[in-house]
């Protein structure tokens, strides 16, 4: 919890710092106070839709005399954010499929390879057999980095030469995962800046191969977003959600960023479950997302 809190400290200072200045010690909550709170939330990357929804709810609770002072409004804000996170929340459960197939997507630089390495480490630590597929065949460095992770955590890897067809890598990886009875197959994909059309074409091709080789695969399409990029991350969420059948999200680099509010926006506004959050560079810093823990770390 302390690690998480440290990771979220910049977001805490920026959002909750301003909320505290506005609300704490205030005996009377009027329309102006709510306007100012709305302004704080909108500039905190929580998203306009979610902010309006939160403010409306607080307004109603004030009208019903449920909230007497600033402290009560702050507590209510925390409760309401938590409720909205819980409504979208579900854990990624990789058990019961052999292999469970995770297709990892996202633009270059967001932390995709690192996230795959950390996930592989996590599943290895649980005693699972992990196979990585180096589906980003456009950058030799991506496959090399993935291989380093594989060696480091004791996972297997399927990789082809630079420029190879990603679908061929996926095909071989499926065969290998079945032959070696892997528990989890994690597939890296190319992260060139995407247009919706070529993204859809690429995904279709990979999915066709996957589904043919392993029924129901991919079981999870995991979108990696860099929280520090704020609004950019949100437009990526929109694009990939429409074009790539995203089923879960990893938000990286929450440490060192004041834009942690986008956790709320991605979850509530884009109705995507957050599976993991990255709050640092080490393996332990990729954490399973826990809404209650998250709001505690954010508010306290
Ligand atoms: P890719 O191009 O999407 O595969 O990105 P990489 O996995 O190579 O990551 C890019 C950089 O982001 C690397 O230096 C990582 O160490 C760093 N990174 C990834 N996740 C996190 C995180 O949660 N926090 C911090 N501080 N850095 C991260």
UniProtKB/TrEMBL annotation:
Superkingdom per UniProt: Bacteria
| Protein EC | 3.6.5.4
What residue range is the signal peptide?
A: none
Q: What class of enzyme is it?
A: hydrolase
> Keywords, A to Z?
Cell membrane, Cytoplasm, GTP-binding, Hydrolase, Membrane, Nucleotide-binding, Receptor
Major location (coarse) = membrane
Chain ranges of the SRP54-type proteins GTP-binding domain = 273-286
Q: Where in the cell is it found?
A: Cell membrane; Cytoplasm
Give one GO molecular function term: GTPase activity
Listed GO cellular component terms? Answer: cytoplasm; plasma membrane
Q: Which reaction does it catalyse?
A: GTP + H2O = GDP + phosphate + H(+)
Q: Which residues make up the binding site for GTP? A: 106-113, 188-192, 252-255
Q: Tell me the Gene Ontology biological-process terms attached to this UniProt entry.
A: SRP-dependent cotranslational protein targeting to membrane
Q: How does it sit in the membrane?
A: Peripheral membrane protein
Q: Per the similarity annotation, which family is this?
A: Belongs to the GTP-binding SRP family. FtsY subfamily.
Assembly? Part of the signal recognition particle protein translocation system, which is composed of SRP and FtsY.
> What the protein does?
Involved in targeting and insertion of nascent membrane proteins into the cytoplasmic membrane. Acts as a receptor for the complex formed by the signal recognition particle (SRP) and the ribosome-nascent chain (RNC).
| Name of the protein this chain belongs to | Signal recognition particle receptor FtsY
Q: From which organism does this entry originate?
A: Geomesophilobacter sediminis
Which region of the full protein is contained in this chain? 119 to 418 of 418
């Amino acid at each position: 919890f302390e690690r998480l809190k440290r990771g979220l400290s910049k977001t805490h200072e920026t959002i909750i710092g301003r909320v505290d200045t506005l609300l704490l010690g205030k005996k009377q909550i009027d329309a102006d106070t709510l306007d100012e709170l709305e302004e704080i939330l909108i500039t905190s990357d929580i998203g306009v839709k979610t902010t309006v929804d939160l403010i409306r709810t607080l307004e109603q609770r004030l009208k019903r005399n449920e909230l007497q002072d600033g402290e009560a409004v702050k507590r209510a804000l925390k409760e309401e954010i938590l409720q909205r996170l819980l409504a979208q929340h579900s854990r990624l459960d990789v058990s019961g499929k052999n292999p469970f197939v995770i297709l990892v997507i996202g633009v270059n630089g967001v932390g995709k390879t690192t996230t795959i390495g950390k996930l592989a480490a996590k599943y290895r630590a649980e005693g699972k057999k992990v196979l990585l597929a180096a589906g980003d065949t456009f950058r030799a460095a991506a496959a090399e980095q993935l291989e380093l992770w594989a060696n480091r955590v004791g996972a297997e890897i399927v990789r082809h030469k630079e420029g190879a067809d990603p679908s061929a890598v996926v095909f071989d990886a499926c065969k290998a995962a079945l032959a070696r009875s892997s528990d989890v197959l994690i597939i890296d994909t190319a992260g060139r800046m995407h247009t919706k059309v070529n993204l859809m074409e690429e995904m279709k091709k990979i999915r066709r191969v996957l589904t043919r080789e392993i029924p129901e695969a991919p079981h999870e399409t995991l979108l990696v977003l860099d929280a520090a990029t704020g609004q950019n991350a949100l437009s990526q969420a929109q694009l990939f959600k429409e074009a790539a059948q995203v089923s879960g999200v990893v938000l990286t680099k929450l440490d060192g960023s004041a834009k942690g509010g986008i956790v709320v926006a991605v979850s509530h506004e884009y109705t995507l479950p957050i599976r993991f959050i990255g709050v640092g560079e080490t393996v332990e810093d990729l954490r399973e997302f826990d809404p209650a823990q998250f709001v505690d770390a954010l508010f306290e």
